[in-house]
Design brief:
The complex is a heterodimer of chains A (113) and B (112). Chain A is mostly beta strands. Helices cover 0% and strands 50% of the residues of chain A. The chains are: A mainly beta (113), B mainly beta (112).
Amino acid sequence: EPEVTQTPSHQVTQMGQEVILRCVPISNHLYFYWYRQILGQKVEFLVSFYNNEISEKSEIFDDQFSVERPDGSNFTLKIRSTKLEDSAMYFCASSLGLNNEQFFGPGTRLTVL
Amino acid sequence: AQSVTQLDSQVPVFEEAPVELRCNYSSSVSVYLFWYVQYPNQGLQLLLKYLSGSTLVKGINGFEAEFNKSQTSFHLRKPSVHISDTAEYFCAVSATTDKLIFGTGTRLQVFP
């Protein structure tokens, strides 16, 4: 069964460093998403991506964040200068179309020291 | 704007007992409703969804949920739980766009 994969499973970084979280969505899906979950809090929407551009982003998704689909298979989330408060579990998701089921990856746990 | 409230952060239950996980939402427009489950060290998996039509929705693993527009609720139920149902359950809504807005989750702990 096709699934969304994410790497790495756990990333530890120093404050101020850049990190790139990687996702491989399901191959025929067209819509891509990033969500995050700070420990003990709810899962929050960050950004949606369709047709090689951002279709919607939340207030959390400021200039420190960017997304890219560099090669037609990977979907990346970059945080340019990490802050302590960026520590969270980051989930990638993909779907075939609007209001179709979003399939989630297992997440990347980001720890900023 | 939409919001989701899951009142119970933890629900302990014995195996083979029925369970209900509560979810209430707030929205000024029509919404789509979802329940996701997260097993340890795994991603979120869709249990069931309500888009339109019958208000009683059946999902995987014997779960079902009922959409109640007047009470703005979408409670998840299972008549008889198994140990393997131990997991975190998230209620979510989406409205005019497809971004999902999640509740804080309910941890279901099933005891033998």
